[in-house]
Design a protein that fits this description.
Blueprint (H helix, E strand, L loop, with lengths): L7 H5 L7 H20 L4 H20 L1 H11 L5 H24 L7 H28 L9 H4 L6 H27 L6 H32 L5 H44 L1 H11 L11 H19 L5 H13 L4 H22 L13 H5 L1 H8 L2 H21 L1
Length: 409
């Protein structure tokens, strides 16, 4: 049978998210960013990212009920964790605004408007933190509450003002931050990974607004004599955890996306050079030694260097006349100019390899033709070598004028 009345706290208990899950996700984001933050410490944007992630981790560590009880016990002051957690949340909100202001205005020199905005944020949220501690001291002694302090003391003088102050400061920061992020998402020309990262950040800060709204609704309900404590004790914590996860992933995604894209690009370029690399291995009788721990970027660099070194040794055997005829032949076969140049270069390289295999190396090799363009276009030449039929057609057509001239003579 379906119960006629359902306690919302029982239902929401099924969706409880441990505070240590968002802490782990935020910690992972901080660890991913930390090497770059240390290496480029002078960058204000990276410092802001590091400070925000560190504060976010601290919020979830110290707001966990077990940590709240431990801090209260160690200090001997009931509910001392309240102003401490409220201060961390307020500092986190201020760091969110500082980050978006710094990030939105770029890494270059900050304008006077930006500096003024940053000073305003620091002054306002520092003042809020001081006021939180003053109000806590004015409230005097009270009974320890681990999970429902916001609603339990919603009508207690000074604690009431303290709770309202941190919730309003939190809501204002999240509202402004979400607004700035969504305005930025609509900007043209954003990298796709940055755009998705910003969308997740925006969703995270909107979730933070939901967190603040549930807390504030529960507190206001207490003012009117109603009991909606489940909004604060059961709904707000999982919403905060979800918000933290979205924000952490939003910071990780642009970094991880750029990393994966670079790796894919290096691997694709490495595979693209395989036909030309194999040809150069046949021509030189050696190859690049395999390195198990080499990064894709290093492997690509080593393959490019090897190919260019062998091409330089083949330069004296390159027939520039054959290259010109091959280019004209490729154009005559209907290939566009870029493809025609790649096919002509491939024909010249194949001919140089064959000529070198037939002709012994002179003791003092003469300087060959200029190979600057060939060394620059090794990717296009390697792509041309993938299709032997196209190269053979160009070689056959390029050989026709030379043979006809020889017959007429």
């Amino acid at each position: 049978m379906i119960p006629l009345a359902l306690n919302p706290s029982d239902f929401l208990g099924e969706f409880y998210i441990s505070f240590w899950i968002p802490t782990a996700v935020l910690g992972a984001a901080l660890m991913i960013k930390l090497p770059t933050i240390i290496r480029l410490w002078r960058d204000p944007l990276l410092r802001a990212v590091g400070g925000l992630l560190l504060l976010a981790c601290a919020v979830f560590v110290f707001c966990a009920p077990s940590t709240i009880a431990r801090v209260n016990r160690l200090t001997g002051v009931p509910n001392i964790s309240a102003p401490w957690c409220y201060s961390l949340i307020t500092a986190y909100c201020g760091s969110c605004l500082l980050l978006i202001v710094t990030w939105r205005n770029g890494r270059s020199g900050r304008s006077a408007v930006t500096r003024r905005a940053m000073r305003w944020v620091i002054s306002a949220y520092s003042g809020v933190i001081v006021a939180l501690w003053v109000l806590f001291l004015l409230a005097g002694r009270h009974e320890e509450r681990l999970r429902d302090l916001d609603t339990h003391y919603a009508n207690t003088p000074f604690l009431r003002e303290e709770i309202l102050l941190y919730l309003v400061a939190h809501a204002v920061a999240c509202l402004i931050t979400a607004r700035l992020i969504w305005n930025w998402v609509r900007t043209e020309g954003l990298d796709v990974w940055l755009r998705w990262g910003l969308k997740l950040l925006g969703a995270g800060y909107v979730s933070n607004l939901v967190f603040g709204a549930t807390k504030l609704t529960a507190v206001i309900a207490r003012w009117s004599g109603r009991n909606l404590d489940w909004l604060s004790t059961d709904l707000a914590p999982p919403v905060a955890a979800l918000s933290a996860i979205l924000i952490a992933v939003g910071f990780i995604l642009p970094h991880a996306g750029q990393y994966l894209r670079d790796r894919c690009r290096f691997r694709a370029a490495h595979r693209e050079l395989r036909p030309l690399y194999r040809l150069m291995c046949e021509a030189s009788g050696e190859g690049v030694p395999f390195m198990l721990r080499a990064t894709p970027e290093l492997r690509l660099t080593r393959r490019e260097t090897f190919i260019r070194d062998v091409l330089l040794s083949l330069a004296r055997h390159i027939d520039t006349g054959l290259g010109a005829r091959s280019y004209d032949a490729a154009l005559a076969l209907g290939h566009p100019p870029g493809r025609a140049r790649a096919l002509a270069a491939a024909v010249c390289v194949l001919d140089a390899v064959e000529t070198r295999s037939r002709t012994p190396e002179p003791p003092e090799p003469a300087a060959g033709p200029d190979t600057t363009n060939l060394l620059r276009e090794i990717g296009a030449v390697s792509r041309a070598l993938r299709r032997c039929d196209g190269i053979e057609a160009v070689r056959a057509r390029a050989a026709v004028p030379a043979e006809s001239v020889a017959v007429r003579e």
